[in-house]
Amino acid sequence: MLFQRRTDMIRPEEALPGRSESMPVAARHPVLGTPMVGPWPKGHETIYLAMGCFWGADRIMWQIPGVYSTACGYMGGWTPNPTYEETCTSQTGHTEIVMVVFDPEQVSVETLLAAFWENHDPTTANRQGNDIGTQYRSAVFTTTPEQLAAVEASREKYQSSLSASGFGAITTQICDASAAGDGVFYYAEDYHQGYLHKHPGGYCNHGFCQVAYATQ
Prior knowledge:
By secondary structure, the chain is of the alpha+beta class. The chain contains five helices and eight strands; from the N terminus they run βαβαβαβββαββα. The chain has helices spanning 54-62, 84-87, 109-118, 145-164, 195-198; strands spanning 45-51, 67-75, 95-102, 127-128, 131-132, 138-142, 173-176, 186-187. The strands form two sheets. It has a six-stranded mixed sheet with strand order 7-6-1-3-2-8, with helices on one face. A two-stranded antiparallel ribbon has the order 4-5. Helix 3 (109-118) runs parallel beside helix 4. The longest helix is centred in the last third of the chain and has 20 residues, at 145-164. The protein starts with 44 loop residues before the first strand and ends in an 18-residue tail after the last helix.
């Protein structure tokens, strides 16, 4: 069971025990040069986006103008401060996720969501390509009621485009961050942060687009 990649969600009592110590990360973002850990500048917001392997998702998000900082991590499950190896067993309940800190005066939630929907397959439950397991599930965890409303509206909008092109139903988990597992974002190990900046030829299963997201 230790190395089994489950496609069914574990129960909280089944989750690995984890640890009390958080993963140390560098003080500054390896690309943006901004802080990796809050508090964030006044007026900035945070949203959490899971779209398969977090390496590629992280790069997609840090390239968007108006994004202040990003970080790879684990969220949506119950194991405190899990390791990458633990998360890859699907025994933590977490999904690989990217924390996106952004300035809403410079970039809208809808712009972030356009990049989110277009760069992964939200119709495959607990899977992205050959990456299989609940740790690869598609998810959006929000931090304000306005964000949640925007995400739900964008899901309906994108579903219409997918359906018109013959694709299936969106399976993305959408909820307030406080309702996602234990409600905590856990930083991934520092070597994951900015991974594709540090390793430009590293693994990435993002970049395809099933259907364009119309922002108008």
